[in-house]
Specification:
Elements (H helix, E strand, L loop, with lengths): L8 H28 L4 H25 L13 H6 L4 H23 L5 H15 L3 E9 L2 E10 L5 E3 L5 H13 L2 H5 L8 E3 L8 E8 L2 E10 L7 H20 L7 H20 L10 E8 L7 E8 L3 E9 L3 H19 L5 H13 L8 E9 L4 E7 L5 E4 L4 E3 L22 E4 L5 E5 L1 H10 L5 H9 L6 H12 L12 E8 L1
Antiparallel strand pairs: 1-2, 1-6, 2-3, 4-5, 5-6, 7-16, 8-9, 9-10, 10-11, 11-14, 12-13, 12-15, 15-16
Helix pairs in contact: 1-2, 4-5, 4-8, 5-8, 9-10
């Protein structure tokens, strides 16, 4: 009966059907012999024997046969061969399924070519840990010749994949382990790091693995894997992880922009830094002063061509409204404005008027030879509940005085001055100009970018053209006036991302 152990379920079912049929036939013969005695003694004895044999076979198949076939028997390999095989029969199909999933991951990347590197790594690690839930994974990318943690994943207590944060204590452990196993030479020469490196977190087994994520002779990252069960990695697991690393390397390689160079990366980084600095330096809304209606309207190009403005509250219910433009752009302009703004903040409280502020600032800028930029500037001083303003110019465009109730717009005659930092000492000092206002009158401050847009659509705008445009507008709130002005000066498609910075500030008496 040892052959019975080798029967699979379909064969066992077929034998049970045959045995049941023999039992039924034998039982019918015996019943007929006992009831009508027309079968004969010998056939009846044979039927009895078949009945007993069939019942025995049925009982055996039903009770023992269904357990024995489930015992795996491998007659072609020893127990040791089975333990060290690179592709065991009960794990080969799972590994193949995982490999297919990794290929699908690469295809998903091709369908979403604009995905960021961070999101691609995160998605790949979550996919990996779901296929190998008894492992913990982390990827370290190469940055400036060093390995930097880029993402990790593991299965949590709810049996769901979760992201490992950089602050996790496990990351520090892995980082130290990687730095002790992978030296700087391996990062510079990927050919020296082509095979998995095993390491042990305990003295029992090598439950850690470092694998190169490389393609075309270039090392992109290092995959770190830890066994939750603290067991060594089997051969089929290493083979699958190598397949995953190869796919991951292709993904990282393809996500590089065609023709991207180190200079391109530096320019992109500088642009991001400039955007952040300008966002922190420039106020989004105008500050309030009693008795005044103040509004601003600004737009900035992708490179930030140098517009800046600020509102500084002073003792005595005063406020300086400052606007200007630097000669640089981008990060260079942002750093210059940061320095200029620091000087303005330090000098404002000790300066009693706009001209005094500009003169003090000119002294400091003229004596600083490290600055090779200059800036045009306008400083307007207003006081709470007063209908007069004091202003001074340093090479900036002359503001317009709007008198809607009187029915005209005025271009005041002012001493223009020279831009700050353009010349050394010896230039004539900056001068104050006092503007008297009536109720409802306002002062419009603007930069060159506002009228340059109008010039791109036709004849170039000047202060007279802007004066005529403002002259046609009725009395209205400051923010409404600026919105109406922008509709006529700036094309709608360029308002959010213009070709050059523009700044409008309008302050009117109530």
């Amino acid at each position: 009966m040892k052959e019975m152990f080798k029967l699979d379920n379909p064969q066992r079912l077929r034998l049970m059907q045959i045995s049941f049929g023999l039992v039924v036939v034998s039982l019918t013969v015996l019943v007929r012999e006992l009831g009508w005695r027309d079968v004969g003694g010998r056939p009846a004895g044979l039927a009895l024997s078949v009945l007993l044999a069939g019942l025995s076979l049925l009982v055996y198949l039903a009770v023992r046969g269904k357990v024995k076939p489930e015992i795996p028997v491998n007659t072609s390999a020893t127990a040791d061969d089975s333990a060290t095989s690179d592709a065991p029969e009960n794990q080969g199909s799972a590994a193949a399924a995982v490999a297919d999933t990794t290929s699908i991951h690469y295809l998903l990347h091709l369908a979403e070519p604009m995905s960021s590197t961070e999101s691609s790594i995160d998605r790949a690690l979550h996919m990996l840990v779901e296929q190998m839930p008894d492992k913990i994974f982390a990827i370290y990318t190469i940055s400036a010749g060093k390995l930097a943690f880029a993402g990790g994943a593991r299965i949590n207590s709810r049996q769901k994949s979760e992201t490992i944060k950089a602050a996790d204590g496990l990351v520090e452990e892995l980082t130290n382990r990687i730095n002790s196993c992978v030296d700087s030479r391996a990062l510079r020469q990927p050919g020296s790091f082509i095979k998995p490196l095993s390491f042990s977190r305990s003295n029992d087994s090598e439950d850690g693995l470092l694998m190169p994520v490389s393609c075309g002779g270039e090392l992109f990252a290092v995959l770190a894997a830890l066994s939750v069960l603290k067991t060594e990695f089997a051969g089929h697991e290493k083979a699958f992880l190598q397949h995953f690393c190869a796919s991951m390397a292709i993904l990282l390689h393809n996500q590089r922009l065609p023709g991207e160079s180190a200079d391109d990366k530096q320019a992109a980084a500088e642009s991001r830094l400039a955007q952040k600095l300008f966002a922190e330096l420039l106020p989004e809304n105008a500050k309030a002063v009693a008795g005044w209606d103040i509004a601003q309207l600004t737009g900035y190009s992708s490179e930030h061509s140098g517009d800046f403005h600020d509102y500084i509250n002073l003792p005595g219910n005063r406020m300086f409204i400052i606007a200007g433009k630097t000669s640089g752009k981008g990060l260079e302009a942002a750093l210059y404005i940061l320095r200029l703004r620091t000087m303005l903040s330090c000098l404002c409280e000790s300066s009693l008027s706009p001209a005094e502020l500009l003169n003090n600032l000119s002294v400091r800028l003229g004596g600083d030879r490290s600055l090779d930029l200059f800036a045009s500037l306008i400083v307007l001083q207003i006081k709470a509940n007063e209908r007069s303003a004091t202003l001074a110019l340093a090479g900036h465009a002359t503001p317009l005085i709007n008198r809607p109730r009187s029915g005209y717009v005025e271009i005041p005659v002012l001493a223009g001055g020279v831009p700050l930092g353009l010349f050394n000492q010896g230039v004539e000092p900056y001068q104050n100009q006092v503007i008297q206002l009536l109720p409802g009158d306002g002062i419009l401050i603007y930069t060159d970018g506002a009228i340059d847009f109008a010039g791109s659509q036709g004849s170039r705008f000047g202060s007279e053209d802007l004066k005529m445009l403002l002259d046609k507008m009725p009395e209205q709130y400051a923010d409404d006036l600026l919105a109406n002005l922008a509709e006529q000066l700036i094309p709608e498609k360029l308002r959010n991302r213009p070709l050059e910075d523009y700044t409008f500030i309008y302050a009117s008496t109530e």
